[in-house]
TrEMBL record:
Gene Ontology terms: cellular component: endoplasmic reticulum; membrane
Biological or metabolic pathway of the protein: Terpene metabolism; lanosterol biosynthesis; lanosterol from farnesyl diphosphate: step 2/3
Protein name (database record): Squalene monooxygenase
Organism: Psophocarpus tetragonolobus
Protein keywords: FAD, Flavoprotein, Membrane, Oxidoreductase, Transmembrane, Transmembrane helix
Residue spans crossing the bilayer: 496-515
Amino acid sequence: MLSLSSHSLAYNKTTVTISESTCHSSFFKFSYNKSHYHTPLLTSNHFSAASPPLLRTATALCCNATADPYLGSSSDADVIIVGAGVAGSALAYTLAKDGRHVHVIERNLREPDRIVGELLQPGGYLKLIELGLEDCVEQIDAQRVLGYVLFKDGKKTKLPYPLEKFRADVAGRCFHNGRFIQRMREKAAALHHVRMEQGTVISLLEQDNRTIVGVLYKTKDGQEHKAYAPLTIVCDGCFSKLRRSLCYPKVEVTSSCVGLVLENCQLPFENYGHVILADPSPILFYRISSTEVRCLVDIPGQRVGKAGMANYLKAMVASQIPPELHDAFISAIDHGKIRTMPNSSMPADPYPTPGALLMGDAFNMRHPLTGGGMTVALSDIVVLRNLLKPICDLNDATSLCIHLESFYLLRKPMASTINTLAGALYKVFLASPNEPRKELRQACFDYLSLGHYFSSGPIALLSGLNPCPLSLIHHFFAVAFYGVGRLLLPFPSFERIGIGARIVLCAVGIIFPIIKAEGLRQMFFPTSIPAFYRAPAYR
Ligand SMILES: Cc1cc2nc3c(=O)[nH]c(=O)nc-3n(C[C@H](O)[C@H](O)[C@H](O)COP(=O)(O)OP(=O)(O)OC[C@H]3O[C@@H](n4cnc5c(N)ncnc54)[C@H](O)[C@@H]3O)c2cc1C
């Protein structure tokens, strides 16, 4: 009997016990001790045999493969997953559930403690349901999120998610990111086909200078190992070191987020995310547990040094937040646990490589204002799972690569909609002395305040409930023309016509570069791209 005294769940003193009947494989035995250490008890490196890549044949799964007894020979991994964060752990569970033998290599199996990935949009929750992972937001003190409240210059507007058509449990969720990840890791590790190992992947192993055949990684004892599999999926997050050989990484750091935890305070609107349209840029609040509220302050461009951060927050930010949160905000600053993360954007620009794929932030990033990263990652996993399902043998790397080209296309509606909205909304919400920018920002607030279709449309896009790029364009330009209309009515002047024209130009200038980076054709004319129709011998 392997006892998983999951200290990651210590706040409710839950003890999870996995019996040997649910944990056949000795590969993924972890001791979860009270210091949060998840130490592999057995690290015999079954996959990392030094057998030359050519001799490796991963288990060819039949399409209707059932759970084979996991023999653990060096040729058993079908897929290597690098990183067990949000994407890696969800992917490991998904592929193993489909009968693949999965070897996950994660740098640190302790519960992560970070300020990212704490709000899962309802669209992401729907993807969790599709993957059978929705119970991972249970028992972690996750809070339901029903929409957003937007604050600007003393006014506020409530933007509920359009959830009427969905079953009762569908909503957004806020939680501690580490608790969520740990739940997914536990769920994945409990599957027969998953071997989860602590180690840092150093590089990808290439054969014939073109096909990725596995990884070189280092375990805690400093030893280097090689692991081989017909497919390696790199999910090593936003600071990925491995993405360089698999994509053209155009990482742009637009701003940074400063994170604080406010304790024992009430949000003005419980169960809603709060977005303050502050100067110079937005501030977010959302409840991440029954006693804690996360505050993320966006700081554009310039970097504020750690030493000056507390003063900056008190002098520049405190006066702009809702009065109900003021004291808790100051107290959080005084307690000093101020964390910072860069906000990076990176369009997906893969270099299709036989034997390897990128997923999650390693593959594609967007500004975190709209909390879309996990939704995109989970949606990508659903697309990939559906594409891989009918493929019995992952060994034909070239044909697999061609087949997976359609992945880049099929992911587009969800990914492009969320990415474009995040980038565009962030720019619209930035305070600016420029007159058309000011008008556009105000028009956006007023348009959303109209309610009904005018708020539910954009919020359905943001939440991943309606991943439709055309609807995004429609609402974006509707905001711009709403701004122009207000300027010109009831009596237009030449000056106002001039500003109106500049509002439209400004809107084009904001959205067009993002769409261009996303790929105009893939985003709006996906069926004109032949890959999907070329591949489906397997469909
Ligand atoms: C400030 C901020 C706030 C955000 N807020 C939200 C939000 O509210 N909602 C939302 O949906 N998204 C949010 N995001 C984005 C979200 O955090 C990411 O999209 C999501 O975490 C991506 O998951 P991932 O699995 O790709 O990366 P991660 O979850 O970061 O996982 C990467 C994993 O890879 C491991 N790893 C790294 N290198 C190696 C290596 N060499 N070998 C082995 N393992 C390795 C790491 O230890 C880690 O466990 C936010 C981002 C930022 C910057």
